[in-house]
Amino acid sequence: MKFKGAILDLDMTLVDSSAAARLRQAGKWTEVYKTIGEFHVYPGVPELLQQLTNNRIRQCIVTSVFEDYCKR
Prior knowledge:
alpha+beta, two-stranded parallel sheet, 4 helices, two-stranded antiparallel ribbon
């Protein structure tokens, strides 16, 4: 079976964003943005994304938070 696309969740799937979990729940977005530097991409994620790209599989990252957060 050939896949045409992959839909991936951002937080706690591609990126360990646990450092901001409580701040997100409290809606303290200014503080959340300050913690983004503490987030870590999970091992294997860059390689997975590269493999999808190499195989011309479209990728979409979804999240339930603001677009600005996702872009950062």
